[in-house]
Structures are given as C-alpha cells and as structure tokens.
Amino acid sequence: MSHFEVDLAGKTALVTGAGAGNGRAIALALAANGASVSVIDLNIERADDVAEIIRARGGSSLPLQADVSNRFQVANAIERTRDAFGKIDILVYASSILHAEPMLHIDEWNWRRQIDVNITGAFFCMQLVGRVMADEGGGGIVNLAAVEAYESSLPAGIGYIAGSAGLIGMTGQAARELAPYGIRVNCITAKTQDGNNAELVDAALFLCSQHAKSVSGQVLAVNDGRSWRAQLLDACD
Fold it and tell me: Does 93 participate in catalysis according to the annotation?
C-alpha cells in the first residue's frame, strides 16, 4: 500500500498489465488519489476485478481487454478510454512477460513473445497515447522495467532482460522526442514484481503527478539501495 499522496483529481490514467502485480497496485493507487483509470489486461476477468475494487471505493474505472503487442487492440483501448473519460493524462506501462528458459534452449516463439510484449507493446502504447497527449497539451508516461537489466542477476530469462534493457533506452529517446509536446517519459526499475512494493507505487505516483513536472528521461531504481556489485560481494562471502 502506498503512503504517498498526490492530487490527481480530474486526471485520466491508462495502465497496462493492470490486472495483477505492480500494474494492479499502481492502478489502485492512481484511483485512490483521484484519477479515473482504464485497467488494461490480457485477462479481462482480472481487469474486471481491479475495476470493481476501484468503483467500490468510489472511483471511476473502465476494464479493458487488450494484447499490448497488437497495435489495433492498443488503439481500440485508447479510443474506448477517451470515449469514457474524454482524455488521457497518464500512461503507465506495466506489462511484461518472463520465460525463464536458458539462452541455449529458449525457442523462437517465447523469445519473440517476450520482445513483443516487453518492448514492442511499450512502443505502440507510447506512440499512440503520445499522439493523443500531444493533441491535448501534454501528459506523463511511466514505464516499468526490471532492475536486472542492469545487473544480469537472473540465472535465465534473456528475452525478459533484453526487453527491459530496450525499454530503458527507449524511455530516454521517447522523452527527447516528446518533450516539445509537453509529454514527460520516465522509467522505474525494480526487483519486486508481485505488487507488494510500496516504494515502487510511491515512485509511480510521484512521476505521474505535478510534483514531477520538470522530471523526464529519468530511470529511477527502486531496489532497496543495493547494486549488482553489492550482491556479487555478498555472494562471494
């Protein structure tokens, strides 16, 4: 649960991967702070559950099923969000897939599926939502990536790491290209993916709020203040 409070009244947020884990936690926190939230997930039942919680707490929410790697499904989710709430102020990209298979054995389908969701989907969402935000005078985008992209600490999962590393790089470039339109783009990296990382949720709220109006192109690591070097030293003790 987040302990950080911001004023998001009148704002509309679109959160992908919002049916579980960090995406769910961030969607709930955005709604608790006043935003109307489109809850996007591949599993519509999970999206419905999150939207019901938001509405039961007095918030506004729209559950949507979409495969973020499908450009047409992303476009449809964006249009349905605009139809429901009139605009989009915030995008949180929390979709990810991990196939923890060794590099020498992963098959092509699993490799491509991870790249499609972990980076291509993020591109589709940033590009299409970015066009909406550009027309509406600006907005904020937050991408979630794995801190392991820096550390290479997973025993297996090269597609997951490649996607996160690409997303980190893409965040900086998107921030540069979208800055003239008043659109901020930032990234949070974290180890915890189960939705119980309150500090990650706080970081997302900050980056989505007016408190971060001058922050863009940044990568914020939420990793208990520990680097991969410290972990290696621990492993050698």
Answer: no
